[in-house]
Write the structure tokens for this entry.
Amino acid sequence: MQKLQNYINGQLTDPIGKTYIDNYDPSVGKVYSLIPDSDERDVQLAVDAAKAAFPAWSVTPKDDRAAILLKISSLIDKNLDRLAKAESKDNGKPVSLARTVDIPRASANFHFYATGILHYASEAHAMEDTAINYTLRNPVGIAGCISPWNLPLYLFSWKIAPALAAGNCVVAKPSEITPMTAFLLSELCIEAGLPPGVLNIVHGYGHKVGSVIAAHPEIPLISFTGGTKTGAEIARVAAPMFKKLSLELGGKNPNIIFADCDYNHMLATTMRSSFANQGQICLCGSRILVERSLYEKFKTDFVAKAMKMTVGNPADEKTKMGAIVSKQHMEKILNCIELAKEEGGKILCGGERVVLQGENKDGYFIAPTVIEGLPYDCRTNMEEIFGPVVTIMPFDTEEQALAYANSTPYGLSATVWTENLTRAHRLSGKLHTGIVWVNCWLLRDLRTPFGGVKSSGVGREGGFEALHFFTEPKNICIQIKN
Ligand code: NAD
């Protein structure tokens, strides 16, 4: 059975403890590879390597750093098919999704920041004829990057690329649930000629590797994407050490549909925003709020479409809905569905595990699930489920829709469907979220600030926001008049 390795100081290495974690293929429910069960000793090796590499990497000309990152990007493109298949097997997502979204985006992340750093400039502030201030933006040092399982290589590279472009060295930990493409990336980094120690990837559990990275005194910056509870724990440990923190956390995003929307476009997009990646995207719209006059029509059409969405083998090119990432997560989602029933919710479709035939008979599949009849403030409508489960609710006025939308502790994204331009602007300004999509969903321009408010996180990724985060500004004031 394949044993993955850490990537430390430019080499693929076994964990010092020589112990491993089982890695499951969720579409068949079987272990198919082993992940290093690393501990603080492996993290220390990675930190030592990063520390040794930093003096040279931080002063490597931007053009040279960019050239290596572009090489990594093109190697990802060259290995698109292999990486897409690996991502699909590791995560359960349809291979077609990995091929068209996850892996191209991972390549784009490297490409974007390789070129972005070349255009990154800092400010100057002239004080008339008294002085001139300018800002130096230096790399921070060793960046700790910790990522989740839902978009494995996509989110892993979304942190690593800007960190490296800005001149930092990195100690990174991918999710132990989906480590495969991060491992394959380490091979590509070696092939691309990334100097040893610049990027170090330590595999293992959150409580044994992630927590050591978060608490490590020589790692002054943590970029984390994952659950809100984990983010709070990282903040608890890192804040008293005055680390720079970027936390991209959970969501419970509203999808607000007005009767005047472009109906067919809305319906097709709402299918995606509800069930893409089995609903395991932090930006999925899990609370669908529909203007009452459209509610019954929407319900009929949406449920009919959801019932037609067949769950299948993720390796099959035609599959649109694959497996849930793990048994544990599948059970969590099924428990959430039970809670929705206890709270008085009516299951309009789905609501249960799907058992496929043949090799996928033990895989973790859940049918697209639509629930109605729940109050806006029940637990089901307040807590993140992170699966193919949405609730639908009617609303009567714009004020009511806004109140429902803003009622959860989360504030990641919102979607608004209306042809009324004035309303679109008015509502967008009042939604307590970091991102609002109007008449679209998951349309991404990598230059835009990405992140949430309230329990959805602190800080922004994307564009120059990430380069600001991965650099330390220093003001230099030069008097020009005595
Ligand atoms: P998680 O918080 O369980 O794990 C995320 C990462 O943190 C993993 O690598 C894990 O090993 C590590 N970790 C766990 N405990 C740790 C600790 N004590 N210290 C340091 N690291 C630790 O999240 P998950 O289940 O992998 O991912 C799903 C969650 O991620 C959902 O809540 C989802 O909304 C969120 N998410 C948010 C965004 C965003 O951009 N806001 C994007 C994707 C996913």
